[in-house]
């Protein structure tokens, strides 16, 4: 039997399941597993309302004040309405915004922000990628780990725990069509990690050519959620480019995945275990939903070999597990199960859209009449054939070559929960697997208070972060900044080793 027939059979088996059929007929969740509904729901839950579902414009050059014919066009940035007491000049701030004209595209441009470190220009370069897929990195910039936050009166206030206090910080709106990034040709919309990682690699080459003074700095890749796919692929692309001496050497030292989706086969299987452990579902419900798991596992295996129609099928099949749990969880916020969603609203990030729509802000950014697409349903759907692929497979090579990996997860997130993340990290085959698995958990402390639990061996670290949901830098800003500092300075695993040695001596 060929893969297409197997895929059709999987979908038939799923619909034939009594529990699944009941779920599909429930008016609260009818169609909730369909991609367009998922994408729209994601946007509503964050109280976002982008005017367009994708940034496609007529004509490329000249549509934006920054996006002329140059390969990269950048300007120094001074946001208007900066809060009282900022007291910095543009040069002191070292803030920049720019467009990169993608080399290998029909007519695409990536928009980015670059914030020089408040501490030292010698600090590492850290790039942040927001997931979705299809959500702008400005979400993290303004609500998680950027230099400032947006006040209700539309002024900017300093973020005391912004990651620019320990790094030179890059945010990129990607894939193409997200945020202020745009194209005039729909053929530039990406569907897999090859397209995404090549675009980011080409961007870095242009960025370091524009900023040669930063080219020798240590470089780290970070992000969260669907960036659990982006990050390993991007890290592998940078490492491959370095080995092949393709262009400017990028001093890649590590990559960090926060509450990410990386190995779906393991992580989807963990949904019911996490939900049961946290009291979201009961044992009988657990047993019933778990009947879908073998079908999901088979679908994911087919996705790994076929990569097209079967990957779409696996998305439908496997997301029934999550939808089934949420049908029982009611108004629980699946980004943070300690919280409730009111109607469709789980978070209110609408100030970001209001701020970025102001004429003075748009002039400062040089984006002209380009729409800001906070989250793109079209990009979300375009990446569906990529969703169920296992991005863990490229990580062992990076670890063997000494590239560090930190996987961290807030303990109250359901959708990319710590349990599933811990399981794929522990299951990963590499030379240090046994010693990592056998290593002891140690406490991660901030100001003498336990902020998480850490496990490390060699280049690999895993941390469960206390009192945090899906967005760790938003929920635990001080702890996340300290985590970044220690990790990039090589002190995170050192702390774990010292504590282990102390216990052994006792």
Description:
The protein folds into 2 domains: 3-30 and 263-343, no CATH class; 72-262 and 354-380 and 390-502, Rossmann fold, CATH 3.40.50.1820. The longest helix has 21 residues, at 309-329. Strands 1, 2, 3, 4, 7, 8, 9, 10, 11, 12, 13 and 14 form a 12-stranded mixed beta sheet that branches. The radius of gyration is 22 Å and the shape is globular. With 506 residues, it is of the alpha/beta class. It has helices spanning 3-16, 18-25, 35-45, 90-93, 138-143, 193-210, 227-243, 264-277, 283-289, 293-306, 309-329, 350-357, 359-365, 377-382, 384-387, 395-400, 418-427, 433-438, 472-475, 477-488, 492-505, and strands spanning 72-76, 95-101, 108-115, 125-129, 148-150, 156-158, 168-172, 182-183, 219-225, 252-260, 404-410, 442-446, 449-457, 460-465. The N and C termini lie far apart (60 Å). Residues 13-33 have low confidence and may be disordered.
How does the SSE layout of this entry go?
Layout (H helix, E strand, L loop, with lengths): L2 H14 L1 H8 L9 H11 L26 E5 L13 H4 L1 E7 L6 E8 L9 E5 L8 H6 L4 E3 L5 E3 L9 E5 L9 E2 L9 H18 L8 E7 L1 H17 L8 E9 L3 H14 L5 H7 L3 H14 L2 H21 L20 H8 L1 H7 L11 H6 L1 H4 L7 H6 L3 E7 L7 H10 L5 H6 L3 E5 L2 E9 L2 E6 L6 H4 L1 H12 L3 H14 L1
Parallel strand pairs: 4-7, 4-9, 9-10, 10-11, 11-14
Antiparallel strand pairs: 1-2, 2-3, 3-7, 3-8, 5-6, 12-13, 13-14
Main location: secreted
Family: Belongs to the peptidase S10 family.
Organism: Punica granatum
Mean pLDDT, all residues: 88
User: What name does the CATH topology of the largest domain carry?
Assistant: Rossmann fold
As a percent range, the share of strand residues is 15-25%
Q: CA-to-CA gap between the ends?
A: 60 Å
Largest sheet: 12 strands, mixed
Q: What is the number of helical segments per DSSP (H or I, 4+ residues)?
A: 21
CATH architectural category of the largest domain:
3-Layer(aba) Sandwich
**Percent helix range:** 40-55%
Number of strands: 14
Signal peptide: 1-22
Subcellular location: Secreted
EC number: 3.4.16.-
Function: Probable carboxypeptidase.
């Amino acid at each position: 039997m060929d893969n297409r027939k197997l895929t059709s059979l999987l979908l038939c088996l799923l619909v034939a399941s009594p529990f699944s059929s009941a779920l599909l007929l429930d008016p609260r969740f009818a169609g909730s597993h369909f991609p367009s509904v998922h994408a729209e729901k994601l946007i509503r839950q964050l109280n976002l309302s982008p005017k367009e579902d994708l940034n496609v414009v007529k004509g490329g050059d000249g549509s934006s004040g920054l996006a002329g014919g140059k390969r990269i066009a950048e300007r120094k940035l001074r946001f208007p309405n900066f809060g009282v007491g900022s007291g910095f000049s543009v040069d002191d701030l070292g803030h920049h915004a720019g467009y990169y004209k993608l080399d290998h595209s029909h007519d695409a441009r990536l928009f980015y922000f670059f914030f020089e470190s408040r501490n030292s220009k010698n600090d590492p370069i850290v790039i942040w990628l927001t997931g979705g897929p299809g959500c702008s990195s400005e979400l993290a910039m303004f609500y998680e780990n950027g230099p400032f936050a947006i006040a209700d009166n539309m002024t900017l206030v300093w973020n005391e725990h912004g990651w620019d206090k320990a790094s030179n910080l890059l945010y990129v709106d990607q894939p193409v069509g997200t945020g202020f990034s745009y194209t005039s040709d729909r053929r530039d919309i990406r569907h897999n990690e090859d397209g995404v990682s090549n675009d980011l690699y080409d961007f870095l080459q242009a960025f370091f050519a524009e900023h040669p003074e930063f080219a020798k700095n240590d470089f780290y890749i970070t992000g969260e959620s669907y960036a659990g796919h982006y990050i390993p692929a991007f890290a592998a692309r940078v490492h491959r480019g370095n080995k092949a001496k393709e262009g400017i050497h990028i001093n890649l030292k590590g990559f960090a995945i926060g509450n990410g989706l990386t190995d779906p086969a393991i992580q989807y299987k963990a949904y019911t275990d996490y939900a049961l452990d946290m009291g979201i579902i009961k044992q009988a419900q657990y047993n019933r939903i778990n009947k879908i798991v073998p079908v999901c596992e088979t679908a994911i295996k087919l996705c790994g070999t076929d990569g097209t129609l079967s990957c779409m099928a696996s998305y439908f099949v496997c997301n029934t597990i999550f939808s089934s749990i949420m049908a029982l969880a009611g108004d629980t916020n699946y980004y943070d199960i300690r919280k409730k969603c009111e109607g469709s609203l789980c978070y209110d990030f609408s100030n970001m859209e209001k701020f970025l729509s102001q004429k003075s802000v748009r002039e400062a950014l040089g984006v002209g009449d380009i729409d800001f697409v906070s989250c793109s349903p079209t990009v979300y759907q375009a990446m569906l054939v990529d969703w169920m692929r296992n991005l863990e497979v490229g990580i062992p090579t990076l670890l063997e070559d000494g590239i560090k990996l930190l996987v961290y997860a807030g303990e109250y997130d359901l959708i990319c929960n710590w349990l599933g993340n811990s399981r794929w990290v522990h299951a990963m085959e590499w030379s240090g697997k046994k010693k990592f698995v056998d290593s002891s958990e140690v406490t991660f402390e901030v100001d003498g208070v336990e902020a998480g639990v850490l496990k490390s061996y060699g280049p690999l670290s895993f941390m469960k972060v206390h009192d945090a949901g899906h967005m760790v830098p938003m929920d635990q800003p001080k702890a996340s900044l300290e985590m970044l500092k220690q990790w990039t300075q090589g002190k995170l695993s050192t702390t774990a080793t010292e504590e282990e040695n102390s216990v052994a001596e006792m």
